[in-house]
Amino acid sequence: MQQHNQIAAVPYPQRSFLTRWRESDLWWSLKHSPLALGAAIVLLLIVLGAAFAPLLVSQNPFDMAQLDLLNAELPPAWEVEGQKEFLLGTDNQGRDVLAAILYGSRISLLIGAATVALSFAIGITVGLAAGYFGGRIDNFLMRIGDTILSIPTILVAILVTSMFRQILPANLREAMAALILVLAISMTSWVQYARTVRAATLVERRKEYVQAATLIGVRPLKIMLSHILPNTLTPVMVTATLNLGLAILVEATLSFLGLGMPATQPSLGTLIRIGNQYLFSGQWWVILFPSVYLCILVLAVNLLGDWLRDALNPRLK
Amino acid sequence: MLAFILRRIASAAGVMLTVAFLAFLIFRFVGDPVDMMLNEQATQEQRDALRERLGLNDSFLIQYGKFVARAAHGDFGISFRNQQDVSTLIGERFPATLELVLVATALSLIIGIPLGVITAIYRRSVLAETVQFASIVGVSLPSFALGIFLILLFSVKLGWLPAFGRGETVDIGFWSTGLLTSSGRRALILPSITLALFQITLVLRLVRAEMLETLRTDFIKFARARGLPNWIIYFRHGLRNCLMPVITITGMQIGNLIAFALITETVFQWPGMGMLFIQAVTFVDIPVMAAYLVIVSFIFVALNTVVDLLYGFVDPRLRAKGAMGASHAAA
Q: What family is this protein classified in (chain A) (predicted)?
């Protein structure tokens, strides 16, 4: 009893989030992996660039009033005819390519993040229900997932977007474009989360703390959300990171094919689609820079996901 | 064994019926087919006649049944856009896509396998690390961006290779091939590299992982003890044991590649099925969309099922457990 009091007397050190992060294994692993650290920095820069785009570039590339045709078709600043204020050149409407990229990356990142959030939510719900209840519910939910995965992802996404576009009246189509994309991409990507959560739930469900909670009469919903879920999140984080890269890629592909974001609010994919028209007219900068930016963005996310998978894998420690 | 075969085929048929149902749904409910097929001056009688002829007055289930029955006979109706038979349209485009996919598959094996072996043998070398990093880049590179880079470099800047089209083709019966003319072969180079890149990284990673596993086994140690030269150990004893999964994945990926070819085809204006599909999506040519969806899914599901069945023959354990393993691996 006395000993118990002694332990209780020692105040639990209140450490800030930052201190805890600095002492964590994850930070140690990140510090010792130059590739992952580089990817994290690049990703941070891209996100900051997207967030503060209006402060970084003087032109809002989608406000027609700010475009000047006199500045059209300027090459990048380092070429002979380039001008300093348009670092990466301009397109045929006098739009600053750098500004278009920064504003475009906002849309790409937002759609990517929203897709991850939505498929995360659907995936956890389905995975928890399937893993916890088992039996018929499990069979039914997982069979839906199998069927979705038995059709190539890009086809499902194209079909869903084109269906929504037909159902919606024409005046809503452009305004809802981002939402349609998020729904279409989440339609396939939730399955990965559901499988991951289900597998983890199957393991956790048999553990003693869950049995104890069931015995003292905690309701299933509470057990699932506050007992099992936190213990399944580690593998889900890896899935989420890798899926962010995939979501950005699929969005860019759909937009490139002309089924995604409209030219009035272009994502990086739309910019590449627009630039594709100038492929043979010598204005290579209009298409090259958005493409390179997209590649760097996806590469950074994938490198981080790869690192996270190894860093969180207990078998590799 | 019979029960296993039946179960696998039933599950494949279930997937195909679902796909056909989706295709039917868009066919029936995305817009009114009658409006799309007739012009605005059509009289009410003409509309009613067409409605009757298309069977749109039947009940929902009967219409679905008829759609499935016709699709199973290869009859997907008539294109809204150019009033041609959809199966003929797709038949004309199919050789272009399949040629592209097969050349890309061959490329992925020719490049992927040796690189995989080398990175497994010299695991710690600079070369292996570089290839390993390049393979992550390969996975991250959107295929349309890669296509654009290749066009900018080899067509626009250097002018070495054509950037669009198939070049000259030769008709052999119903099959039109670009492999027999030099312009056809030149036109294939950039698109097939673009399509193959992802597949190359896949094969590379697979071979590397399998080789690392195999090189640890006892029979490799025994081969070393016998004093066999290194290249015989690696290529005759090691690689051979890695090839089975490579063949499996390659076979199953062909369905995926056919679907992904639509991106490559759009970039290079390659006159294949994928470009036909994208045009159909843009012009809401629903019979073509439905047909493409059903055909590509059929190839995809059929390949998966065949692979699963073959695995069932080889490995009796899979027969007992519903044998979903191989199809999951493909996803």
A: Belongs to the binding-protein-dependent transport system permease family.
Question: Are B13 and B107 contained in the same domain?
Answer: no
Q: Is residue B239 part of a domain?
A: yes
Q: Which residues of B touch A252 (CB under 8 A)?
A: 142, 144
User: In the beta sheet, which residues pair with residue A90?
Assistant: A96
The domain containing residue A161 runs over which residues?
Answer: 33-316
Report yes or no: A162 at the B interface, CB cutoff 8 Å.
yes
Is the pLDDT at B321 greater than 70? The verdict is no
Could you report the per-residue pLDDT of B126-156, keeping only the tens digit for each? 887 888 788 888 888 888 888 888 888 888 7
Q: Are residues B35 and B104 in the same domain?
A: no
Q: Are residues B134 and B189 in the same domain?
A: yes
Number of structural domains (chain A) is: 1
CATH number at residue A81: 1.10.3720.10
Residues on chain A touching B156 (C-beta within 8 angstroms): 279-280, 282, 284
Same domain, B211 and B96: yes
CA B55 to mean position of chain CA atoms: 33
In a domain, B292, yes or no: no
Closest of B76, B281, B259 to residue A160, by C-alpha: B281
Same domain, B108 and B69: no
Query: Chain B contact for A147, CB < 8 A?
Result: yes
Predicted complex ipTM exceeds 0.95: no
- Arithmetic mean of pLDDT, A36-44: 88
Q: Which of B126, B86, B101 is nearest to B277 (CA)?
A: B86
The domain total for chain B is 2
User: In this model, does residue A80 exceed pLDDT 70?
Assistant: no
Per-residue pLDDT band at A72 (split at 50, 70, 90):
low
Quick check: A137 contacting B, CB < 8 Å?
no
In angstroms, rounded to a whole number, what is the distance separating the alpha carbons of residues B299 and B43?
A: 42
- Provide the terminal-to-terminal Cα distance of chain A, rounded to the nearest Å: 38
Cβ count within 10 A of residue B137: 15
Note the pLDDT of residue A156. Answer: 83
The predicted model scores a pTM of: 0.82
